[in-house]
Amino acid sequence: MSAAPGEVCAALDVGSNSVKLLIGSLGPDGRVDVRHEEVVVTKLSEGVDARGTLLPAASARTLAVLARYAEACRTFGVSRTAAVGTAVLRDARDADAFRAQARALGFDIEVIDGDTEAYVVRLAALRELPGTPDDAVVIDIGGGSSELSWATGRESTELGVVRLTERHIPRDPAGAEVLEALRAVVRARLDRLALPARSEMLIGSSATCAVLARLDLALDRHDRDRIHGHEIPTEALVARASQLAVLDLEGRRALPGMDRTRADVILAGTVVLEQTALRLGARALRINDRGTRFGVFHRAFG
Fold first, then answer.
1. Fewer beta carbons below 10 Å: N end or C end of the chain?
2. CA separation for the pair 93, 48 (Å, rounded)
3. Quick check: do 9-114+293-301 and 129-291 share a fold?
4. Strand order across the beta sheet in which 32-41 lies
5. 173 upstream amide cis, omega within 30 of 0
6. pLDDT tens for residues 16-51?
7. Domain boundaries of the chain, sorted by first residue
């Protein structure tokens, strides 16, 4: 049911790498009028690819954040919430037990399939990033999967930053040989998609995209006004991947603009974006800093 004018609602994205909260209402322009936002890296998917179940410590970290988010919802007078879980809760055999604990905190997490996840990502771009054409190729990179959508299709892939890092980056720094092997893995997966032969612009959302914008702009903090809509040329993505591959973790953390909590997985995300842009012949990556949780908000309350 659509939100009433001024009604304060909340959308949560319980992802493989981070948990994101959006509190707001629909504005007169159809975009979300943000009252409060939080993003916390909890690495819920840590070890899931190998074990098939959630690590108790990762579950505890994430539930502690959800408890804090529940308090924020009460503080801001939220009337309704919509919470979704993505790849990690699709993959973990004990996801139902985690969801029961989240329900006790007030969040009924809907585990959405990859197709629905790709849909909400696209919805976010079309509603929240002015100038996004209807036929744009849109990508969102998560910890366990990446979602791509285009005019005639959409697909969820296993190209998530935590999954790729655990599987294909065995050492730190990665080095040129590992980088080329990772690029080959990503190319092979993209080649199985019915993507358009060419697209002038790739639209990207996710923390990886925001961090790359921060690096490109040398920002010492997250600044949505500068990040949202920022364009990074494809050749700059290629150069950034090569740079990240030769730096160790502390070297990556020291880069101006780096989010220290993302430095361990930023190489994998950069390669996914780089290879997607190259596959499309895209001139640049345009950043949508209003990603999945905004799409969840529009799907539930728009």
1. N
2. 9
3. yes
4. 32-41, 18-26, 9-14, 80-85, 109-111
5. yes
6. 889 999 999 999 999 999 999 999 999 999 989 889
7. 9-114+293-301, 129-291
